[in-house]
From TrEMBL:
Name recorded for this polypeptide: TIR domain-containing protein
Lineage: Eukaryota, Viridiplantae, Streptophyta, Embryophyta, Tracheophyta
Top-level lineage group: Eukaryota
Pfam families, alphabetized: PP2 (PF14299), TIR (PF01582)
Domain TIR: start-end pairs: 32-196
Keyword Repeat: no
Gene Ontology biological-process annotations: signal transduction
């Protein structure tokens, strides 16, 4: 029996901030004053690289903080600390003499503290230095660090800075190498822009569609992102009349789930046959846009039955169902990393193997890509797109899946 869940009107707010752990929903709104904070050693990169990077970011309307005073001494002003705390992303430009500056190293300590406490994104840029030189304090970079140690003679501080350099060198970032600087800067800007478009608080548009849908407008691109609530999906045995299979949970009352933008989520109690579909009219999306569709979910303690892959697919009107279905693994134990912790090349390699693996989002929900599609132009952006997640072959019992919804966002 297939139950199509009823439509209803709602207004929903975008999620701002992230919870502190996978099963902890206590999160707070982060008031970001700047999109980007630039950390760098002035004498190495201020005149050319940083100047071009800063103006490139500003040209793209990315609110960027830059300290226009040359770093001096050891103590950083409270105003600068406040600027770091109020920035969504910190770009740390690691250059040849970066580790010779107490100012830069103390700035780095603050940045990494904000990464831990405020969930700030940290993007290292390796400018004419190799990540291994930063990680191990070797080469010219290491000589600068040793020079500072000889001057300072403070082992406690040196150990703190050493740990910070190791940590930042292990983050996914950008390595100049032998690249053209202008292309390198453009790649950084595009990466920052995509992160801001995803994490920036978005304005919420109201559409009289009679559906429980969150529609958001990105301030940078003007493109629409849209999320269908679990109540708007077609779920086999997902009716309230069969509570032994699925249960509807008020999301605001759950102490073990991430914060939801909707009033209810669907909890899988026990099924053998998993079949979830979402449908949407393409005319409410941005025209001439490539969209990715993502299944947004979580797992509760004690979940089981998800060691086999599910099939995910997208079907446009008049296309056969399941023609391009691919494997996807919902089990979070396979991969609990965030997208920032792996390079795009590594993620693509993973996806090319046996199937797609889940990504943990900053709002602490997990997502897995269902597929992608293009919308038409203003005059021909009509039709329906169906997104499907299905496992009907193995028939193992499954339990513990929490369905948040399906999200559509520009790629």
């Amino acid at each position: 029996m297939v139950i199509t869940l009823t439509e209803r009107m709602t207004s929903s707010m975008a999620i701002d901030g992230a919870s502190s752990s996978f099963l902890d929903s206590s999160s707070s709104i982060r008031p970001w004053n700047h999109d980007v904070f630039l950390s760098f050693r002035g004498e190495d990169v201020r005149q050319k690289f940083i100047s071009h990077l800063y103006h490139g970011l500003v040209k793209k309307k990315i609110n960027t903080y830059i300290d226009r005073d040359l770093e001096r001494g050891e103590e950083i002003s409270p105003a600068l600390f406040k600027a770091i705390e109020g920035s969504r992303i910190s770009i740390v430009v690691l250059s040849k003499n970066y580790a010779e500056s107490r100012w830069c190293l103390n700035e780095l300590l603050k940045i990494l503290d904000c990464k831990q406490v405020r969930k700030q994104i940290v993007l290292p840029v390796f400018y004419c230095v190799d990540p291994s030189e930063v990680r191990n304090q070797k080469g010219d970079f290491g000589k600068s660090f040793d020079k500072l140690g000889d001057q300072l003679k403070d082992n406690v501080k040196m150990l703190k800075w050493k740990a910070a350099l190791e940590e930042v060198a292990n983050l996914s970032g950008f390595n100049l190498g032998n690249r053209d600087e202008s292309e390198f800067i453009e790649k950084i800007i595009q990466s920052v822009k995509s992160r801001i478009a995803y994490h920036r608080p978005l304005s919420v548009a109201k559409y009289p569609m009679g559906k429980e849908i969150s529609v958001q407008i990105d301030e940078l691109s003007g493109k629409k992102s849209l999320m269908l609530a679990a109540r708007e999906l077609t779920i086999i045995w997902g009716s309230g009349e069969t509570p032994q299979h699925w249960e509807w949970i008020p999301s605001t009352e759950s102490p073990v789930l991430p914060k939801s933008r909707f009033s209810e989520v669907a909890l899988l109690r026990k099924v053998s046959w998993l079949d979830i579909k979402g449908r949407i009219e393409t005319e409410i999306l941005s025209p001439r846009t490539k969209y990715g569709a993502y299944f947004i979910y979580s797992m509760v303690d004690g979940f089981y039955g998800f060691h086999n892959p599910v099939k995910v697919s997208i079907r446009l009107e008049n296309e056969e169902e399941g023609g391009d279905a691919i494997n996807a693994y919902l089990n979070p134990r396979l991969w609990l990393g965030t997208q920032e912790q792996r390079s795009n090349e590594e993620l693509l390699q993973i996806n090319r193997q046996d199937g797609r693996l889940p990504i943990k989002r900053e709002d602490m929900w997990m997502e897995i890509e269902i597929g992608e599609f293009f919308t038409g132009g203003h005059g021909d952006n009509h039709g329906e797109v169906e997104m499907c997640l299905k496992e009907v072959q193995v028939l193992h019992e499954k339990s513990g899946l929490v369905v948040h919804g399906i999200e559509l966002r520009p790629k």
